[in-house]
Design brief:
By secondary structure, the protein is α/β, with parallel strands linked by helices. It has 2 domains: 47 residues; 315 residues, Rossmann fold (3-Layer(aba) Sandwich), CATH 3.40.50. The chain contains 16 helices and 11 strands. Helix 3 packs across helix 5 and helix 7 runs antiparallel to helix 9. The longest helix has 44 residues.
């Protein structure tokens, strides 16, 4: 009887979670369509004003003296041009004269997205690498960028990167690829192409939410038979297979290099993907395995913090301690999309019959969370090796900035505080983004190294 009750509660939770996610996705999509229709109608009556506005924006962005600030979206995210005029970063890109917002795969793996980001900036056809492509069963080459968005990118023209959620880990993987000279035809890359990295709720060390959504805690790679992620898997496969251009124009999960379209895969290709015999979910080459604790350990084992790059992170938290228990804080301030998960992550227990993901793991260290990621995961890379870090309360405490150290702050807010809805975050939105852009422009710069202690 107890087991039946447990199963019934799990099914109810699955239904509620899937309904909330579906409704929120429909809300975002419909908002984008409505926004485009509004612009189209305005264009009919105010065409000259719109063209003048576009010319003004172009003249501002033509300033080549400033290194660009690149905003990298997280899971389910989108860049400039997707979802009409909707901004993933809620318009924060307008706060600086030279900001780029790339559109990367929203569910593709950290590795694939890092490769896409490189070619978005330098130009050319995305090359996922022969060995990786064969191992994962997808095409080696992807989207073509006729002209890179910052083709002069090199050690003398480095870039500031700002990443939200999984986007922060994408930046770290890209920097390591640059250090390893992992791009064919670009033998001069180095870690110094990255001037600074700013993380907003960054997924550095994985999240226990991945297991709540359906990843198996035993290996961090496979999915439970019945879970939210299985519903997502089926939906994504069908969405890519029907391949309706207008839908893909507004939103793309990023799996075009898997050729799942009905034109290429046919009906049997669809069946094969749904049965789990082929596609990104069969190979594990998608985002969720990278967001488990095990997946993050695999990534972090070969990712470095480099001595000439500036690092700063904002870790979010929507929990507090009450009578010795970790509970959600400011319930009205938690987005409905995240509320159930905040509560569940507060109570997370690693299965006792499953080996812990790493030596020294303790559940209680992972209870503070923002509804998507654990706060301990967002501050700086910690596992399997802790990287140099410093906790700060006020920005003035870390001036002048020192490269090679992760400066981090704890911010009261949920996982989508920094994105999509600017009004929801209020004045905190402007304060945080203003400090980020000011730091990039005034405090994070590279000097010619001197060694005064060794001067005779």
């Amino acid at each position: 009887m107890f087991r039946l009750s447990t199963v019934a509660l799990q099914l109810i939770e699955l239904f509620l979670s899937s309904a909330v996610h579906l409704l929120y996705g429909f809300y975002i999509f419909s908002s984008a369509v409505a926004g485009d229709l509004s612009l189209a109608i305005n264009a009919l009556f105010f065409k000259s004003n719109i063209e003048a506005s576009i010319r003004d924006v172009g003249s501002v962005n033509s300033d080549n003296d400033l290194p660009p600030i690149v905003l990298v979206h997280g899971i389910f995210g989108f860049g400039k041009g997707r979802l009409g005029g909707l901004s993933y970063f809620a318009g924060a890109e307008k706060k600086d004269e030279k900001v780029l917002v790339p559109d990367l795969g929203s569910l593709t793996s950290i590795y694939d997205r890092a490769r896409e980001l490189f070619y978005y900036l330098k130009g050319g056809q995305v090359d996922y690498g022969e060995e990786h492509s064969k191992a994962c069963g997808h095409s080696q080459f992807g989207r073509i960028y006729e002209e890179g968005h910052y083709p002069q990118w090199d050690e003398d023209h480095p870039i500031h990167f700002v990443g939200h959620s999984a986007g922060a880990q994408v930046i770290r993987v890209l920097q390591q690829m640059l250090a390893d000279k992992a791009f064919k035809g670009y033998e001069n890359t180095s870690e110094n192409w990255v001037l600074s990295v700013t993380s907003l709720s960054g997924a550095f060390n994985g999240t226990t939410r991945a297991y709540l959504d359906g990843m198996q805690p035993e290996d961090g790679k496979s999915m439970k038979p019945i879970c939210l992620l299985q519903l997502l898997r089926v939906g994504v496969i069908v969405y890519d297979w029907i391949d309706i251009p207008i839908l893909k124009y507004y939103y793309n999960f990023g799996f075009d290099h898997y050729n799942m379209s009905w034109r290429k895969a046919g009906i049997w290709g669809l069946v094969d993907c749904l049965l789990g015999n082929s596609g990104p979910f069969a190979s594990g080459d998608w985002i969720l395995p990278d967001l488990t604790i095990q997946g993050s350990l695999r990534l972090n084992s070969h990712l470095n913090t480099f001595p000439s790059t500036y690092y700063f992170s904002y870790a979010t938290k929507r929990t507090t301690k009450f009578l010795g228990f970790t509970v959600p804080s400011n319930i009205l301030g938690i987005h409905p999309l995240l509320f159930i998960r905040v509560l569940q992550m507060c109570q997370w227990r690693h299965p006792p019959d499953v080996p812990p993901p790493f030596k020294g793991y303790r559940d209680e260290e992972w209870w503070d969370n923002d509804g998507a990621l654990n706060t301990v995961s967002m501050t700086h890379p910690r596992f399997p090796v802790e990287h140099p870090s410093r906790f700060v309360v006020k920005d003035s405490e870390c001036q002048p900035l020192q490269p090679g150290i992760w400066y981090y702050k704890i911010v009261e807010g949920d996982h989508i505080l920094f994105i999509v809805n600017r009004e929801r975050a209020g004045v905190q939105f402007d304060l945080i983004y203003d400090s980020i852009f000011e730091r990039c422009r005034k405090h994070a710069f590279r000097k010619i190294p001197t060694m005064p202690d060794h001067v005779e």
